[in-house]
Automatic annotation (TrEMBL):
GO molecular function per UniProt: transmembrane transporter activity
Descriptive protein name: Major facilitator superfamily (MFS) profile domain-containing protein
Localization of this protein: Membrane
Residues forming coiled coils: none
Transmembrane spans: 7-32, 52-72, 84-108, 114-134, 141-161, 173-192, 221-240, 260-277
Gene Ontology annotations for the cellular component aspect, listed alphabetically: plasma membrane
Residue span, Major facilitator superfamily (MFS) profile domain: 6-282
PROSITE patterns, per the entry: MFS (PS50850)
Keywords: Membrane, Transmembrane, Transmembrane helix
Main location: membrane
UniProt membrane topology term: Multi-pass membrane protein
Amino acid sequence: MDAGWAWVVCAASFFIQFIVFGTIQSFGIIFVSLLNEFQASEYETVVVVPRFPLACVGSMAYGMLFFIGPVTTALTDHVGCRKMVMIGTCLIILGLVTSSFATSLSVLYVTFGVLWSIGASFAYFPAILVLRFYFFGNLSFANGLSMTGAGIGTIVLNSVINYVNQRYGWRTGMRMLGGVSAVMFVCGSIYLPPPQEFLNMMDWTSYEKISRFIDPRPWKMKPFIVFSACMCCICFGYFVPYVHLVRYAETLSVPLSEGALLLGYISISAIFGKLLCGRVAD
């Protein structure tokens, strides 16, 4: 643990978060293209109207990714990290490719808001959970290091998506992201099964296996309740800039290419924050 192959696994987790969050946190650029494609007014994107709000395509995808997290982590304990990442990658590619052929917002809700987000959840959470099998003393730092993939992925894919969208259109951009996502098959194959001695330490009884799906004990701990409440409040505003910042900059006569850089600046601060917090936590 904490050496050799463990850091290869950490790199694999880095690239999974690079792709997953690089995709969803660049949605602001895709959002501008969708506005032009479907000719939806900004009023319709923020107010609930009879037809689907456009901005909620990305918001739903981001929310679903974490909403099904408890189910994903429980499945990961039974199926294994490698298989979950493989299944998730298939769903991500399917969601992105089918989204590129969408002719209505309702289709995007299913293909990107549901299908892609389930796949992203299946890939992301195992990428975090697998580190506990390979790290002990440096676990927090390894988590922080792998999570910088989200920030770096946003910077890189943000620029790539912006270029592809302007030159070839958002549909080609979606297909390109589907091809990039195939890299996660390689990442998933790196996750070797945990050592048998580790599994013996986790030899749960039947009751404990069931309680891992619905475990009320954390909700009896005040620190956990406070932490969960704080995270809920943070999430109300966290994703808003990633959806609306580029479009808002455009309304202020800022060129699309420069508006897209704003998402990169946010990601740069996130990178340093995650590395610092990871080292301090250890």
